[in-house]
């Protein structure tokens, strides 16, 4: 994947490393977060910092094998002070995510949080109403099954969400397992 030298937006100026993605390139499920944080920028790997630890623990608790997932973000470079990526940056980075989805061709995409859910589905959804459900990604992202849940970092400020994400992922696992047995 030719992302390594990307200079399509201003975020390349301050990055230590670009964080493309990690996991098997034939993964059935792709998990998409928002953008790399400090640790991710340092190690060039998604979800290795605080949010990553929460994610790993939640996956372990739900019996989803992290090693089977391809994990990436909407944005491949760290925004300063972990601010939300802006429209220009999201637009510039879009092509990379589209290419990843085309190449990996996952059956399922899990969108972690508002930014990923919006980018993939094209809808300004309320997580409160749509978490734990499937929506379709837009045509640009292959009209795939996108499963919506909260971002693990949200649990830092709202502890109750830990249980919510866990339940969402348990439900996802059941549906995924059912899909496998039916095929
Ligand atoms: N938050 C994200 O959305 N992605 C990461 O890789 C790390 C933290």
From TrEMBL:
One of its GO terms (molecular function) is 4 iron, 4 sulfur cluster binding. It catalyses: Hydrolyzes single-stranded DNA or mismatched double-stranded DNA and polynucleotides, releasing free uracil. Residues 20-170 form the Uracil-DNA glycosylase-like domain. The keyword Magnesium does not apply. Its EC number is 3.2.2.27. It holds the Pfam family UDG. The keyword DNA repair applies. It is an enzyme of class 3 (hydrolase). Gene3D superfamilies: Uracil-DNA glycosylase-like domain. Keywords: 4Fe-4S, DNA damage, DNA repair, Hydrolase, Iron, Iron-sulfur, Metal-binding. InterPro entries: UDG_Type-4/5, Ura-DNA_glyco_family4, Uracil-DNA_glycosylase-like, Uracil-DNA_glycosylase-like_sf. GO terms for biological process: DNA repair. It comes from the Archaea. PANTHER family: TYPE-4 URACIL-DNA GLYCOSYLASE, TYPE-5 URACIL-DNA GLYCOSYLASE. Belongs to the uracil-DNA glycosylase (UDG) superfamily. Type 4 (UDGa) family. This is Type-4 uracil-DNA glycosylase. It comes from Methanonatronarchaeum thermophilum.
């Amino acid at each position: 994947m030719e992302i390594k030298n990307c200079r399509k937006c201003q975020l390349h100026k301050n990055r230590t490393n670009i964080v493309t993605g990690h996991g098997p390139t034939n993964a059935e499920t792709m998990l998409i977060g928002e953008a790399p944080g400090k640790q991710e920028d340092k190690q060039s790997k998604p979800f290795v910092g605080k949010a990553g630890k929460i994610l790993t623990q939640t996956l372990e608790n739900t019996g989803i094998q992290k090693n089977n997932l391809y994990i990436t973000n909407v944005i491949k470079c760290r925004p300063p002070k972990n601010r939300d990526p802006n429209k220009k940056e999201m637009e510039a980075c879009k092509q990379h995510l589209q290419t990843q989805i085309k190449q990996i061709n996952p059956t399922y995409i899990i969108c972690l949080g508002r930014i990923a859910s919006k980018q993939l589905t094209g809808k300004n959804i309320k997580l409160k109403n749509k978490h734990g459900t499937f929506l379709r990604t837009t045509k640009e992202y292959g009209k795939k099954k996108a499963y919506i849940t909260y971002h693990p970092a949200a649990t830092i400020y709202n502890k109750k969400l830990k249980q919510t994400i866990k339940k969402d992922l348990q439900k996802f696992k059941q549906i995924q397992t059912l899909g496998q047995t039916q095929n």
